[in-house]
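Standup notes
- DV: blocked on the single-chain target, sequence here:
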Amino acid sequence: MSKEQWAEAAKERDLKGGVPVSAKVGKANVMLVRVGGRICACGHECTHYGGPLSEGLLVGNVITCPWHNARFDVRDGKMVAAPALDDLVSHPVKVENGAVFIGPARSPGPPTIGVGDKRTFVIVGAGAAGNACAETLRQEGFGGRILLITAEMDGPYDRPALSKDFMAGELSRKSLPLRRADFYETRSIELLTGSCVTELDAGARTVSFSDGSSVKFDCALLATGGIPRKADIPGANLASFFLLRSLGDAEAITDGVAEAERVVILGAGFIGMEAASSLASRGLEVHVVAPGRAPMEKVFGEQIGKWLQRLHEENGVRFYLGNTARAVSGKGKVQEVVLADGSRIVTDAVVAGLGIVPAVDYIRDAGLVENGAVPVNARLQTKAEGVYAAGDIAVVPDRHTAEPQRVEHWVVAERQGQHAAKAMLGSDAVYSEVPFFWTRQFGTSVKYAGFARQYDKLAVRGSIEAGDFLAGYYSGGRMKAVSGVGRAQEFIALCEILKAGRTVGPEELQDEGVDLRGLISA
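- DV (later): unblocked, structure below
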């Protein structure tokens, strides 16, 4: 490497141990950090949505993105955990006369795929979990056949963006695919779109398709996600009454509201509130109908839910809480929604966000389904040897408490897909990730980590009213989950504490004088 290829990035005296910093070197933004007695340099922007990594939190050799909690090893830029799919670029480093120089970027190359492996791995579902599993199998060097199967006509795409930027009109269809069209071909991943699996025989290790064909497998991952709940009311079959799950659904909604002035949202959960935000930002008059006392109350609690409601109301959204739709009427298309209390809302369209049910019909006779979902062990394996499940359909035991958890969120599904791939290749590691998700509404990102189906105390650091807070959810004095707006490093610190099976008391959480980052290794 010639001397001209090296560029000064920082002074050595400015790099404190374990504190990442950003540097502009030419046109590149580089992150520098001193760890384990050496200085490391890698890309500064997260490969998910471009979050500034130096504003995240470094724990050991791993940096966590402040936006959506993707993790990378700073020593070589390797991606450690989703939602990022790619490694960071890395740079060689040298120190001369107190100055830190970096060499040319080393971009991640394609994985080395083994040869001579005659096994066939089948992945049913090409959403977050299925795609992550297929990619991880190849990244880990698996050289057998991979079939990635989806009933949708589209390959893997960024589903969380549908109810956010895509529906708001800020993101085009061409920006949604997770990978370029040739990605799967170059990695010898057989992507079967428009292919409906109708049956899985765990004993014979075969999957059958709607066209009558079948294929044998050595290992299988079941990652079919969920099906939107339908509104069981008169008029739900009218034109301009929409459900949202797939890219096709999102396109139908955006086309259907192109000439609309008003829209009614049924449900105030994730889909409902994100759809309300996105459609209001398009200039529509938005009405939200939901039975609860506050939006997203089951997840965030009433106090934070009411804050979200005010955020929406400040942007023109109208709420009808403690209410439900009794019927929808119109001549050929939606024109009016009749509520349970007898009131009526004139509208041009309805979007129903009433939750999902796990998509498990194709395995009803396989003996894998209990209470409508698929229980798995700590390695994400089902009752059947060689058959794994991940994502919305999987009920996963908590590493520390063994409490069964089924979480319907993108990052959870991706991380489970990554873990399942390694388990399919023989790893005995226990799945230990803390559930994480985020929602963005009117430009405000709210994050949540942990699992608190029930809690008896909410402790708050900062101000919910000001939109700058951490909230801890406690049961029996133990923190089960945390949510927050802003305060990224503190939020990540609490994620690390939850992952370790430890807790932070409500008094410590509320006390601004307690450095939560310092509690990680305490």
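- Follow-up: The CA atoms of residues 264 and 287 lie 5 Å apart.
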